[in-house]
Amino acid sequence: MSKLELKNISKRFDGKSVLKDVSLVVNEGEMISLLGPSGCGKTTTLKIIAGLVEPDSGDILLDGESILDVPVEKRGTVIVFQDYLLFPHMTVEENIGFGLKMAKVDKAKRVKRVREMIDLVQLTGHEKKYPGELSGGQKQRVAVARALAVEPRVLLLDEPFSNLDARLRESMREFVCDLQRKLGITTILVTHDREEALMTSNKVAVMLEGSIEQFGTPEQIYKKPASLDIANFFGEKNYIEGTIENGMFKCKIGKFKANHNISSKVKAMIRPEEVELFPKSADTGVLGKVKRKKFAGDRIYYTILVNDTEIRCITKSEKDFKIGETVAAKIDFGNVVFF
Ligand SMILES: Nc1ncnc2c1ncn2[C@@H]1O[C@H](COP(=O)(O)OP(=O)(O)OP(=O)(O)O)[C@@H](O)[C@H]1O
Ligand SMILES: [Mg+2]
Predict the structure, then answer these.
(1) What is the mean pLDDT of the chain?
(2) pTM of the model
(3) Beta partners for 211?
(4) Domains 4-233 and 238-338 share a fold
(5) Rounded distance from Cα 107 to ligand 2 centre (Å)
(6) 41 Cβ inside 6 Å of ligand 1
(7) 4-233 is classed in which CATH architecture?
(8) Where exactly are the structural domains of the chain?
(9) Which atom of ligand 1 is closest in space to residue 210's alpha carbon?
């Protein structure tokens, strides 16, 4: 098990700054997610760790020692790419054993290790097949086995699940996470899927435009986003401008007790799941009119108009109101984040 540290890594391509002073610590045996929108620099970060791209400045330490001058094949870091990059003319076992052959591991050892890997990723019976004869999930397991066969110190997964359909994605995600925990291998999972990042990792690093904007536990990232940009990246929210005075938040839709005591102009971020709807007779919350309603099976998405302000909310599907109906919207201000 190894501790990986990125120290002030910067990189420009064609004069354009792609990574800006990126620092990150992944402790021994930890799995972290690197989450961010397309083009923010996630793959470049992994390639720099693996030695496929050279940074302009900064350092990478593995167990406290710089690996910048260590050649790719000796770094002990492997990347599993999104499109797996299996060798089409090699069988499953040849693909898995490829790295060992390159490292000149003797044949008997190689055969044993490949058999262990096939066992580990549950591909027994498929040893002699070619990639073209495998399903997406099986190909991915070959790619993971090939990466693990060389006993890397750090495993780098670049959007490994994005080519799989929703159900397979979920089971492969569980499979890889279980494997990671079982082997205790230090891992970075790159993804642009928020839920995937929150569900799989000890910690999440949110990257926007080449900088790590926040690094914390899934709860911290979700409940206390460090900036409006991060909050926006995490999906649809309600933002209401107002002022806080003496522990009360005053805005267009009313006056509420606020968990914040500085006096200032603020923007309150209210998540749709923190607004609860009741019939208007319930005598709670603020009154509004149902403007939009989208049925989604176990949930209903509503947009409520309160004094010209649109409030989006998500309810259980039993909460069935009609468009135009007056409802009472109760906002849980305990979880509201003020910016
Ligand atoms: N070899 C290269 N030469 C020039 N520009 C590059 C090179 N590699 C990456 N870039 C640029 O660097 C930026 C970051 O690319 P990168 O592949 O790291 O993004 P990403 O976060 O992995 O995106 P995605 O989610 O789409 O995979 C992009 O603007 C990209 O065009
Ligand atoms: Mg990428």
Answers:
(1) 92
(2) 0.86
(3) 208
(4) no
(5) 35
(6) yes
(7) 3-Layer(aba) Sandwich (3.40)
(8) 4-233, 238-338
(9) 14
Instruction: Let me know: does 339 contact 325? Beta carbons within 8 Å.
Output: no
Please list, in sequence order, all residues whose beta carbon lies within 8 angstroms of the beta carbon of residue 234, skipping any fewer than 6 positions away.
194, 221, 222, 225
What are the tens digits of pLDDT across the range 92-137?
Answer: 999 999 999 988 899 999 999 999 999 888 899 999 999 999 998 8
SS3 296: coil
* 54 Cβ inside 6 Å of ligand 1: no
How far is residue 170's CA from residue 167's CA, in Å, rounded to a whole number? 5
165 lines ligand 1 (CB under 6 A): no
Q: Which ligand is nearest to the CA of 41?
A: 1
Contact 289, 324 (CB under 8 A): yes
Question: In the CATH hierarchy, which fold is given to the domain comprising 238-338?
Answer: OB fold (Dihydrolipoamide Acetyltransferase, E2P) (2.40.50)
Cα distances (angstroms) measured from residue 283 to each of 91, 252, 274: 68, 19, 18
Tell me how far CA of residue 326 lies from CA of 238, 279, 288, 314, 319, in angstroms: 19, 8, 6, 17, 13
What integer pLDDT is reported at residue 166 of this predicted model? 82
Task: Name, in order, each residue with C-beta under 8 angstroms of 95's C-beta and a sequence gap of 6 or more.
Answer: 86, 87, 131, 142, 146
Give the whole-angstrom CA distance, residue 5 versus residue 106.
33
**Region at 55 (left for phi over 0; alpha for psi -120 to 50; beta for the rest):** beta
Q: Is the CB of 18 under 6 A from ligand 1?
A: yes
Q: What is the pLDDT of residues 213-260, one digit of tens each?
A: 999 999 999 888 999 899 888 877 899 999 988 888 999 998 888 877
Closest C-alpha residue for ligand 1 atom 1: 13
Ligand 1 mutation target, pool 10, 12, 13, 82, most atoms within 8 A of CB = 13
- What amino acid is encoded at 198 in this protein? L
Query: Cα of 45 to ligand 2 centre, how many Å?
Result: 9
246 pocket-lining for ligand 1 (C-beta < 6 Å): no
Ligand 1 atom at shortest distance from the alpha carbon of 192 = 25
Closest ligand to C-alpha of residue 81 is 2
Distance CA 243, CA 117 (A): 59
